[in-house]
Amino acid sequence: MIGTPATSSPATVPGRAIDLDAFRATPLSHDPFDHLIIPGFVRAEAREAIHRDFPEIEQAGSFPSRELNFGPAFAALLEEIQGPAMTAAFEEKFGIDLTGHPTMVTVRGRAKAQDGQIHVDSKSKIITVLLYMNPSWETSDGRLRLLRGPESLDNAVTEIPPAEGTLLAFLNGPNAWHGHTSFVGPRRVIQLNWVQDDGVVKREQFRHALSAKMKRLNPFR
After folding, report:
1. How far apart are CA 51 and CA 65, in angstroms?
2. Cα–Cα 20 to 30 A to 28, which of 6, 7, 78, 173?
């Protein structure tokens, strides 16, 4: 991590980058599984600094945040989304006690053609949060779809453009199917998970770090 959150700019002060009031005001959707979508969750006035301080990621894949270099505005955002106010808001929204369940953050900067295959997240993940940070998204590809089942991307209930500031959060479960059509190119997303225990964090960070190392050694992999 490069630097620490500054105190002079609203974009880098913890508690200023995200809109928890909008989160609290947005009702939970239950079809096809418990989720909510909030465009503008990252405040407009914070985005320029976060873009500037976003880690440079040249390969596809997920990278643990601790393995990346980034600036203070991005650091402040990560601190905020893992803070007690965010956790309390999620507990209230999803009706779940997250006490004793740690958070894990991974970051993506690019997508490859094979990304987006239909899947559910691992059972070790309790809640998944995707926070998109792409300045604009004109193409119809690469938009996440929430699905009724694993058979087809066409069996979607809703589709989320990965536009800057948009949050998608959902309760993980056996029916939480999601995926997106193939896209190759820059696709910035921060993934936050509350997980079962610290062992999950250690295993997942080791797995992601090993994968990241292999990608750096062989970027065409």
Report:
1. 15
2. 78
pLDDT digits (tens, 9 = 90+) for 117-175: 999 999 999 999 999 999 889 999 999 999 999 999 999 999 999 999 999 999 999 99
Within 8 A by CB and 6+ apart from 193, the residues are: 103, 104, 105, 121, 125, 126, 127, 128, 129
| pLDDT value for 15 | 53
DSSP one-letter string for 163-189: BTT-EEEEE--TT--EE-----EEEEE
Burial of 108 per CB tally in 10 Å (0-12, 13-18, 19+): buried
For residue 62, the tally of other CB atoms under 10 A from its CB is: 18
H-helix or E-strand containing 52? Answer: helix 44-53
- The angle that helices 72-81 and 44-53 make with each other, rounded to 10 degrees, is 120
Nearest to 65 by CA among 106, 31, 97: 106
CATH superfamily membership of 10-217: q2cbj1_9rhob like domain (2.60.120.620)
Mean pLDDT of 60-86: 95
Pair 144, 180: CB distance under 8 Å: yes
Q: Which residues contact 149 (CB under 8 A, 6 or more apart)?
A: 155, 175, 177
